[in-house]
Amino acid sequence: MRAKIIFMASAVSVLFFSACEKDKLVEDRITFEEFNLGESGVYDGSDLSGGFTIGNAIFSNTYNAQWDYWESGFVISNHNDTQTEGPSNLYSCIAGSGANLSSNFALFSSWSSDTLEFIIPEKVTNISICNSTYAYYSMLYGDDFAKQFGGNSGDESDIFKLKISCLNDNNEIWEIEINLADYTYVDNSGDYILDSWLDLDLSEVGYIKYMSFSFESTDMGDYGINTPTYVCIDNIFGELKE
Asked: What pLDDT is stored for residue 1 in this prediction?
């Protein structure tokens, strides 16, 4: 494996109930597929709702109305441009689709951290992760703001991580790190930038109340991370007990 380990309206969230009377198991499945994104192909929070709820999950969103742009948190997109470099292609996934060749997916960005909250603590059996096209090409070639990972020689050590801090129902904090790009191998042939969907099973964490997402990069400047802090997320599946 190369890498380590929402809106309201009509988005898909299916709840499956078991027959157990005493300990009823509920499955929450968030795939974003039935959400109508219109001609723009993206929901960016410009309605100033501050976030959105799908199924058992509440997703934060910050939109800057003064400057008219998505500032941080979660949005939903169906953009599939895998060729265009730069911020003009902000909402695309480098895999060219959502997970399992679906259309819609979520996109997360933050300069610090933002939170996904579960209404009822949930055991996450799957969450799918992939690089955005913007971040992918920025790391591959470098740009006006960020360096080329590995440098011109390919020998420089670089890494870009998605960090997920989970608080479970026992008030235990679990820290999870996913390498979205890893240029730390002695043999450069092992270096990679994630370009396909990665499925993660977080069952070991237990029933999660909050998931806080943030980034870490070796490419730092005076104002923080230079690498574009964006990641695509899809297929959040989980189990909860009522």
From this structure: 38
